[in-house]
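quick one, 411 residues, struct below
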Amino acid sequence: MPANNPHLATPPDFTSERFRQAREQIIVNGGDHVTAADQLALIWTVNNDLEKQEWDRQVQQQQQAAADRERQEAEERERLQLEREREREAALQEEKKKYRHKHAPIPQDAVISSDPIIIPSPIAVRKLRKGDFVELYYFTNKGLRSAESSTRSADDDALALLQMGDGLHSFVPLAAAQAKGTITMDKDLSWEEFAEAAHWLATAMRENEWPEDRVDSHIKFWIALEGHPWRHGHCEISKHALLTYQARVRRKWHDTLATPHSFNIALINTTLLSQIRDELVHSARVAQLESLKQVSLLFSPSSGNHLLTATPPAPPPTFYELLFPPPTPPTLAPDTRPNTAPPAQPMPPPKRTLGTRDTHPTAPITPRDTRPCPHLRMSWPTCHPTPNQTADKQIPPRRLSPDYSQIAQYT
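---
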């Protein structure tokens, strides 16, 4: 490509002295300087035209390359923009899925209902959507109140590590982990709770688009249990047998779906119901025998338990004792002095005179004849003289109250 634009170039003056030599080379073959100058001008014009064509071609190539480069850059910018929009849309969809309550559409013309709004537990709703077994407890008044007062999480995929019954750990939904241990099993529900749960569960099954024939089968099943003669009898074990039958059969109905063992839950199997009642009767008898065995072992002489002769616990202190606690008697140090006294010698019996009165017993008195005092921790002669000492020393008997001046010498 020429360094300068040939379209801007002007032809030189070939008649000038500068081009004399070129004209003379042309004149050698004949002609003059004017003709030679014209020929030189013609040659320059031809070369300039070639340079113009080359210039135009290269300029066109450059323009085409610039246009292609600009088009590629625009396409790249558009591709990046579309990719960012797709990422933003994917992130928005993920956020909507994770926080569906935040992005849920709200009807602008709807007013809150005056009737009670029943919202079951999230784990119960998720099980119903899948068609799985769900405990009746979630639809009792107690379970609905618990679901209403508990924090509702919008993340249905949140998992928690939980130890199963076989000792192994498994990931379960967080809502199920939180509810584990707080729900009441179907067989342990009362008949009042069973009636509450059956009504709300049937409504929830319809709201979650269960087939109508399955909903009707469950309703007939529950009505049959409510109308069974055992339900209105006086035997509590028979009533419990109906609830246990409901719990077992409804779970077995879910477990046998899509298998050759599936059945109609609305049909009551009286044989199985009687077997369940017999099991409960047997369990009650075993529990009663175990309780009697425990009671017999508790009062057995060989067991070492003497409940009837057990010392009752000390009564709590009274208000007066708390304000004025009884004084603590002083603790006397043990006597560590060596015993240097001579061995005790028996005293001769006193002489008796006819017509005189025996003022003291004839029992001998030793110098160390002491007995513990129930009032103070000191020797008996120091606190209370014996009758012999009173008779010999002719001193009056002392009162029972201690002399605190004598206590001071032991403290």
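The beta strands are 159-163, 169-173.
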